[in-house]
C-alpha cells in the first residue's frame, strides 16, 4: 500500500473513531441512557449465527422490530427462517447465491453482494428497525466484494438506538474496533469432523 493510501485510510479511521467517541462520550454524559450496540460474533467455532438468532428471539419477545440479512447463504429451508419469518415484526432476507466455491464466479458474487448490501443499507437507515442482523457479512468484506470503509461508515451512521449483529469468521480489526461487543468463538471440536452431517435444529 502506498503512503498516500495508508494516510487516507488512517484519516478515515480517525474520523470514524471520532464519531464513535462522540457517541460514547454523549452516552457517558447521560449514563442512564441506552444506546444501539454493534455486536460482532466471529471465530471458527460453531455458534455465531445461532447466537444472533437468539437475540432475534429476545428482541421479538419484547415486541421489537427485527431485520435479518443472510448473506452468502441461499437456502430458505432453515428452522430459523421458518420460525421467525412468520412473525409480522420480522423482515427476513436470504441474499446469497451459495458459497463462493459453489458459484466460482467472482463477478456474480460481487453483484449478489451489492444487491444484498442495498437491502441492508435500507434497514440501517430506518430507525423503525430495533435490531438488524447481518449474518455472514464478514466474508463479503474479507473477499473484497463490498467496500469495507463504506460498510463501516454506514454502520457508524445508523440510527443511534439501533442494535446490529454482524456474524462471520475472521472479522477485521477495523470492524472489531468499531464494535461495542466482540465475541470470538473458538473451535474446540465439531461433530462434522467425526462424519456427522448437518442436522435440523442444530445446524439449520
Ligand atoms: P451456527 O449457525 O450453527 O451458529 P456458525 O454461524 O457459528 O454456526 P458458520 O460458519 O456460519 O458457523 O457455519 C454454519 C454451519 O457450519 C452450521 O451447520 C455449523 O454447525 C457448521 N459449522 C460451524 N462451525 C464449524 C466448524 N468449526 N467445523 C465444521 N462445521 C462447522
Ligand atoms: Mg453462521
TrEMBL record:
SUPFAM superfamilies: P-loop containing nucleoside triphosphate hydrolases
GO terms (BP aspect): cobalamin biosynthetic process; porphyrin-containing compound biosynthetic process
Catalytic activity: 2 cob(II)alamin + reduced [electron-transfer flavoprotein] + 2 ATP = 2 adenosylcob(III)alamin + 2 triphosphate + oxidized [electron-transfer flavoprotein] + 3 H(+); 2 cob(II)yrinate a,c diamide + reduced [electron-transfer flavoprotein] + 2 ATP = 2 adenosylcob(III)yrinate a,c-diamide + 2 triphosphate + oxidized [electron-transfer flavoprotein] + 3 H(+)
Pathway: Cofactor biosynthesis; adenosylcobalamin biosynthesis; adenosylcobalamin from cob(II)yrinate a,c-diamide: step 2/7
Pfam families: Co_AT_N (PF12557), CobA_CobO_BtuR (PF02572)
UniProt domain Cob(I)alamin adenosyltransferase N-terminal: residue ranges: 4-28
Protein family membership: Belongs to the Cob(I)alamin adenosyltransferase family.
Name of the protein: Corrinoid adenosyltransferase
Amino acid at each position: 500500500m502506498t503512503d498516500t493510501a495508508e494516510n487516507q485510510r488512517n484519516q478515515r479511521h480517525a474520523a470514524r473513531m471520532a464519531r464513535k467517541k462522540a457517541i460514547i462520550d454523549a452516552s457517558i454524559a447521560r449514563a442512564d441512557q441506552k444506546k444501539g450496540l454493534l455486536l460482532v460474533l466471529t471465530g471458527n467455532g460453531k455458534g455465531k449465527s445461532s447466537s444472533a438468532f437468539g437475540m432475534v428471539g429476545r428482541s421479538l419477545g419484547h415486541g421489537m422490530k427485527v431485520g435479518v440479512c443472510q448473506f452468502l447463504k441461499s437456502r430458505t429451508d432453515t428452522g430459523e427462517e421458518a420460525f421467525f419469518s412468520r412473525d409480522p415484526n420480522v423482515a427476513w432476507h436470504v441474499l446469497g447465491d451459495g458459497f463462493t466455491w459453489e458459484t466460482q464466479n467472482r463477478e456474480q458474487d460481487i453483484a449478489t453482494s451489492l444487491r444484498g448490501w442495498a437491502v441492508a443499507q435500507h434497514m440501517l437507515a430506518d430507525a423503525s428497525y430495533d435490531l438488524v442482523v447481518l449474518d455472514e457479512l464478514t466474508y463479503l468484506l474479507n473477499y473484497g466484494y463490498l467496500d469495507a470503509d463504506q460498510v463501516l461508515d454506514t454502520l457508524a451512521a445508523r440510527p443511534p438506538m439501533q442494535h446490529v449483529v454482524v456474524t462471520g469468521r475472521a472479522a477485521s480489526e477495523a470492524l472489531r474496533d468499531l464494535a461495542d461487543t466482540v465475541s470470538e468463538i473458538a473451535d474446540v471440536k465439531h461433530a462434522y469432523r467425526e462424519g456427522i452431517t448437518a442436522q435440523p435444529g442444530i445446524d439449520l
